[in-house]
Amino acid sequence: MENQPNKTSGGILSWFRALLGKPAQPIKSQTKSSKSEPEIPPEEDSIVQDIESLKSFVKTVGHTVSTQKVEPRKVASLPKPPQIPAGITKKSPLKNLIRVLLVVFFLLILTFIGIRIVQLLSNGGNDDTTVQLPNNVIPSPVPYIPHNPSVYAEDVEVLKLEEDILVLVRELSNTSIKEDRLYPPTLDYNVRF
Amino acid sequence: MISAGKKVRRTFAKHLLFVGLIIFGFLATFPEQVFSQETEVTPQPATVTTLRSDKAYKLYIEAVANYESAHEIYLQRKSQYLRFGTLKSRQDAQEATEAMMQARDTVVISYFNALEEHLTNSTGVPEARIESLGLAFDAETQWFEEHKASITSATSLEDLVNKTKEAESRWKSDEGLMYEVLSTISYGKILDFSSRTNETFSALRQKIADIKQDEREEYVFSEKKFDILGRWVSEIEQRITQSKDVQLEAENKISEFATKKGRGLNSYNEVIATLGQAQTLLKEASTFMNEIVREVKTKEQ
């Protein structure tokens, strides 16, 4: 374990040095008693060293991880949805049908609007009901007729006549000549035993 | 997850909304309506004749209500008697039938009274016509009052059945009289409108003649304007004449109620349709008169 960091650092360093074109430093084994692997010349097998160091590193991490037993966390389980019997499907066909119909209806409306817009644009905004005016003709404005009372506008007799006529018109419009509430009653003369 | 605080706020909001709706509904149902300005003419105090007419109508409605309740009891007792056939059930059926028949005659009498009062208070009907129809009503009312009194003297169900047949026959023969009165009331309204239209039209023609004779410079109209007014006056005369022809046609139909048998609701509807045409013609004539007045009040260009 002690040799491994040294080996690892030596391996990386030698690789780095090899990259720079410098000769790799000899690896100094610190413990003679350890049964180390046979020495391999660094300039010949730096890559192998790297691989070995990587393997040892992975083993170390793996050991640390794998030794711990992972137990799943107890999470409050959601209530299980009611089990649907086998005979009934999840989505009812009626709902699907309604959704499809709504979508189709919406698409029809959009299509209709689009067709109308295209028609209007192609006709230049003209409809059958509108009157086509030539471009060089300007419609004349409606002449304004101001209130122009004659001398009889304030005449007493004329005003009295006007009032009588208006009352008569109103009564003729609003009076119903039919007597709805005095129809003969319905009586039962069918007395038989 | 909704917090407890949010839940409390939501519940409070719901309660508040509910209370608000109740208060609003209460205020909307029972407010006093306050008007700043009355647009319609305030009604004149009811005259004595109108009060009598309304009272007679009210009595008629009460009589109808009493008859309906007596009729229900009669039907129950009749069905019991027909089912069980006991002496007791027969006695009950007889009493219920007597009560129903008396209530029925009361309805007829009160209906005749209400109709007569309404005829008396209607406008436009000649007095002679009102009198003759009133006499006919009096005769029929007397007959039904005697019939009502004779019901109590019946000793059996068969007697009651016979008395009902008499009343039924009399009631059917009075159908023509009832619809004749209703038609006369409607005809009276049209006569009143026609009379008023004629009066107003005469006054208007007189005014136009006065304007024509006026020689003051600013009071004179041009010949063109008088021509226009003259044409419009002719239109009004034509409408009034047509209305009179239609009224005559309606009067002939009304007279058939007394002369021809079997005249009822259909004939009444025909009379109403004819009188409706007369009303329309009079309305047109009045509208044209209004146009003439407006033309007189407007200065020439």
Describe the structure.
The complex is a heterodimer of chains A (193) and B (301). Chain A is mainly alpha-helical and 193 residues long. Chain A contains four helices and no strands. Chain A is 47% helix and 0% strand. Chain A is elongated and about 135 Å long. In chain B, helix 3 (87-121) runs antiparallel to helix 4, helix 6 (175-213) packs antiparallel against helix 7 (223-259) and helix 6 (175-213) runs parallel beside helix 8. Chain B is flat, with a radius of gyration of 32 Å. With 301 residues, chain B is an all-alpha fold. Chain B is 83% helix and 0% strand. Classes of the chains: A mainly alpha (193), B mainly alpha (301). At the A-B interface, helix 4 of A face helix 2, helix 3, helix 5, helix 6 and helix 8 of B. Chain A: The chain crosses the membrane at residues 97-118. Chain A: Residues 24-45 are annotated as: Disordered.
The major pleated sheet of chain A works out as: none
Counting DSSP E segments of at least 2 residues, the number of strands of chain A comes to 0
Shape verdict of chain A: elongated
Oligomeric state of the chains present here = heterodimer
Q: Tell me about the biggest sheet of chain B? A: none
pLDDT averaged over residues of chain B:
88
Radius of gyration of chain A equals 53 Å
Give the uncertain stretches of chain A in residue-range form.
Answer: 1-7, 30-35
Percent of sequence in beta strands of chain A: under 5%
- Rg over C-alpha atoms of chain B, rounded to the nearest angstrom: 32 Å
End-to-end C-alpha gap of chain A:
126 Å
**Would you count the extended β strands of chain B for me?**
0
**Total number of domains of chain B:** 2
Protein topology:
The complex is a heterodimer of chains A (193) and B (301).
Chain A: H1 3-20, H2 46-67, H3 93-123, H4 156-174
Helix pairs in contact in A: 1-2
Chain B: H1 4-29, H2 48-84, H3 87-121, H4 127-151, H5 157-173, H6 175-213, H7 223-259, H8 265-297
Helix pairs in contact in B: 2-3, 3-4, 3-5, 3-6, 6-7, 6-8, 7-8
